[in-house]
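Good morning N.,

You mentioned wanting to compare the apo and holo forms, so I went ahead and generated the holo version with protoporphyrin IX containing FE. This is what I fed in:
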Amino acid sequence: MRKVMSLAFALCLLSGLAVAASAQETMAKKSLYDRLGGLEAIKAVVNDFAGRVAADTRINKKFAKTNIERLGFHLVQQICAATGGPCKYEGLSMKKSHTNMKVTDGEFNALVEDLVASLDKFNVPEPEKKELLSALAPMQADIVEVKSTATGTELPANFKPAKPLSKKKVAAGPAANKTKKM
Ligand code: HEM
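and this is what came out, ligand included:
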């Protein structure tokens, strides 16, 4: 009888462990997009981030000619796509959109600091924050044109901003181009 009891106990323990392992696997399989809270959470972070950038004299001169609606739309789309969400990024490449903007390393870091402040405001946990920042870090090489720690540098007078988006596109939203369930 004792043997049967201990066998039953061992089986219970094993099945308990199996359940725990599969729960962990499901967590690991969740995309960063889902762990961040989906499109509405990304929109809220980008919105807060845009406010910080606009007020940050270390970088705000660079946005003087920019159509902010287009920028916000493409930022949401880019983060959604890069984190495994149901979006396809349709903006310009990082190289093309930042060409002749003369962004420095110091300005790049300032912008990342503003993004971190927004992620902190929305209590994005450390692992998700790190994962998102690691996805953006490789873009630095295509964005920075001036190897310098300087900030607050002028936008060159001949910088040409991208065209505004159509009203139809803005109304449809950044995730309208991919039909995966949200
Ligand atoms: C990881 C860092 C960065 C990411 C992910 C990023 C992403 C983007 C995206 C998605 C766009 C929109 C492109 C389009 O609409 O076609 C854009 C445009 C722009 N970015 Fe960045 N960017 C970064 C760093 C920076 C920095 C450091 C600055 C300046 C300090 C900057 C200034 C701008 C400006 C001014 C535009 C608008 C250009 C225009 O008016 O055509 N970006 N960026």
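The chain has a mean pLDDT of 89.

Happy to go through it together on a call whenever suits you.

Best,
F.
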